[in-house]
Amino acid sequence: MASEDVVGKSRGDTAVNTIVNLAEEAKLAREGVKGPGHQVLTVCKSLFAGGVAGGLSRTAVAPLERLKILLQVQNPHSIKYNGTVQGLKYIWRTEGLRGLFKGNGTNCARIVPNSAVKFFSYEQASRGVLYLYRQQTGDENAQLTPVLRLGAGACAGIIAMSATYPMDMVRGRITVQTDKSPYQYRGMFHALGTVYREEGFRALYRGWLPSVIGVVPYVGLNFAVYESLKDWILRTNAFGLADNNELHVVTRLGCGAVAGTIGQTVAYPLDVVRRRMQMVGWNHAASIITGEGKEALQYNGMIDAFRKTVRHEGFGALYKGLVPNSVKVVPSIAIAFVTYEAVKDVLGVEMRID
Description:
1% strand
């Protein structure tokens, strides 16, 4: 409320302001208009719902996420992880249960604000794009097209990714280090400080460019395909899946699974290059990178990383880790979308994209 912004005034003035603002918001409520206090609360609830969705979905698939990164960056001269089942067994045998979830704490610390900003930014961007689209076409009943949804989703992804990228960079390094690594990051903040001190600020954004480029097909398609599928089912009642203009949780899971699979497959080579660039310049790197005496490849940029990866390991190297990523992306994305909407319903959030 407005009274919360009043500083240095007398107690009597504050009380008057409080009563006035309460009366104004009550009047707005009677007229069907939401006051600024309600809007702020709605925004906070939407951000919270996005954070819960991101944290829960990532934790559920943390072992597969770690294995994916290990497969992406391991030195081709010293192969330890040969597949999904073998890789998970190897981690369990050599590092135990904790090894399966290594880096998950840092991932959750990153993904909660990332998901919160991403989901919220998408809703706001979609509202803005829809308003401009209706103004341009002169049709007040116009709806978002898949292309417009793609643009809104891409904007949301870039904003969220850029805001939390340093956390993702050090999360990748923490994830691949083992007990035998010559130098141990003790946690996210220790890793951030160490990288900044030894490699400079720019090192915290290594791999940022392929990440930005990958946002369009990955995040954009995730949102666009999910929203388009949901709208199509509700509009046509395809296969009888729509019940009283509502979708069952299982149907929403299916929409999220399809969206996630398409997005991750298109953008996956960029993710591999991003992870490899994040490992460049790492002093006392984990043995999985150095290959226990073998020299690790150094990359001078995104194009150089693509070229060297294909030349030394073949085109298939751009899809290393795709299998565990495909296995994890279906439940991860689906749980994220469904949890987000469920939490918003529980909290009574009224923000919905038309």
